[in-house]
Write a structure and sequence with these properties.
- This protein has one domain: Nucleoside Triphosphate Pyrophosphohydrolase (Alpha-Beta Complex).
- Helices cover 29% and strands 40% of the residues.
- It has 3 helices and 7 strands; from the N terminus they run E-E-E-E-H-E-E-E-H-H.
- It is globular and about 45 Å long.
- The chain starts with a strand and ends with a helix.
Length: 142
């Protein structure tokens, strides 16, 4: 089994969260594999920038971890991904979904819609809990 450490971001703007639709028509969050002795923070920010085209995401808090397993048809082996997530904010109005990374569409979606759209239940939980923490942090900052 191939085991990979990954990092990603749950990016909020106001009452919306950024989602991406991949080549399998799944609604997911931006993330990537940690390589080349980079930190999880560096990878999370890099992948958010690369996959979404957002220029200025800012990490405001850790969000937790998720993991999943799948069978890689190209590698012909099972793959286990463990992802460290960060809650991010971004005020950018412009974004560009990375079609070179296999994404078909994406953008900021109102939280209620996003929770219906997200494909995987653990990602739904991650978005919901991250949104609660994001809102709590906004109250503290006021």
């Amino acid at each position: 089994m191939l085991m990979r450490n990954c990092a990603g971001g749950v990016v909020f703007k106001g009452e919306s969260v950024f989602l991406l639709k991949n080549e399998k028509n799944e609604w997911v969050l931006p993330k990537g594999v940690i390589r080349d002795n980079k930190t999880d923070v560096d990878v999370a920010l890099e992948r958010v920038r690369k996959e979404t085209g957002l220029k200025n995401p800012v990490i405001i808090s850790p969000a937790g971890e998720t993991s999943y397993e799948f069978y890689s048809i190209t590698r012909k082996i099972p793959v286990y991904n463990e992802i460290v997530w960060y809650i991010m904010t971004c005020e950018d109005d412009e974004y560009s979904v990375s079609t070179e990374d296999g994404f078909q569409e994406g953008g900021f979606y109102p939280i209620e819609d996003a929770l219906e759209m997200v494909t995987y239940s653990q990602d739904k939980s991650l978005v919901y809990l991250s949104y609660k923490r994001y809102k709590d942090m906004q109250k503290i900052a006021i």
